[in-house]
Specification:
- This protein has 6 helices and 16 strands.
- Helix 1 crosses helix 2.
- Bound molecules: ribulose-5-phosphate.
């Protein structure tokens, strides 16, 4: 019988649990694999961790399960951080597009000794394909400026919209999100450097040299990818 995607994510979370030291400070991003991990942490006997998270959903789930959640602004070091992503490649470059919380995810990942991506094998590719846009979180006032700079870099920018604020999606930090599609990316590092350099951009959803490991789970088992 084929293993379901649900079970694969669960196995991935179980393997992740095994590398968390007792009494550590851990970062937890968002998504279904992280939700499994929260349940495993709760069930483990005599095991206590403190959590920082960029995600309101994860924070609520942690609190519902009795986990200790710290204020990120009071934390300067994280032992291990776990996160999902939309795609990760052999160099551990990753793209996160969905949630719009990438600036905080990257901050917590950067505070951590190890930033570990938990993915099922469908998200692993030899090199990022950019089928999905790179997301920029930006200052509202920088919208037109960032749009024109992104077009100069060959990107196709579209503001993310919802009913929230004048038709625009607003992040938890009160900023806007711009989805930028690229047809071809020859140099991921250079693209990230160029996007980061645009004044008004807080951060991008392209994670270059942030993840230190990825745990890739598939129907035939688990594989660790190291930096
Ligand atoms: C969104 C993300 C999420 O972390 C990711 O999609 C979660 O994936 P899963 O539910 O498979 O654990 O990066 O951009």
């Amino acid at each position: 019988m084929e293993t379901s995607a649900f079970d694969i994510k669960k196995e991935c979370a179980k393997e992740a649990l095994a590398v968390i030291p007792n009494h550590s400070i851990i970062g937890l991003g968002g998504g279904s694999t992280i939700s499994h991990l929260i349940h495993f942490i709760k069930e483990k006997d005599n095991f206590e961790v403190q959590v920082v998270t960029p995600s309101m959903q994860t924070k609520l789930l942690c609190l519902e399960n009795g986990l200790d959640v710290l204020h990120t602004e009071c934390v300067d070091h994280v032992d291990l951080a776990f996160d999902g992503c939309d795609q990760v490649d052999a160099q551990l470059c990753a793209l996160k597009s969905g949630g719009g919380i990438h600036s905080l995810e990257k901050l917590i990942g950067s505070m951590a000794d190890e930033y570990i991506l938990l993915v099922d094998e469908s998200k692993y590719v030899p090199a990022l394909t950019f089928d999905q846009p790179v997301v920029l979180e930006l200052l509202t006032e920088a919208m037109a400026y960032v749009r024109s700079r992104v077009e100069q870099l060959g990107g196709r920018p579209v503001m993310r919209r919802s009913a929230a604020k004048d038709g625009f999606t607003v992040t938890d930090n009160g900023h806007l999100l711009m989805d930028v599609s690229f047809d071809q990316v020859h140099d991921i590092r250079q693209l990230e450097t160029n996007l980061q350099a645009i004044r008004g951009v807080l951060d991008t959803s392209l994670f270059v040299d942030v993840a230190t490991k990825a745990l890739i789970a598939g129907s035939s088992g688990m594989k660790w990818l190291n930096k």
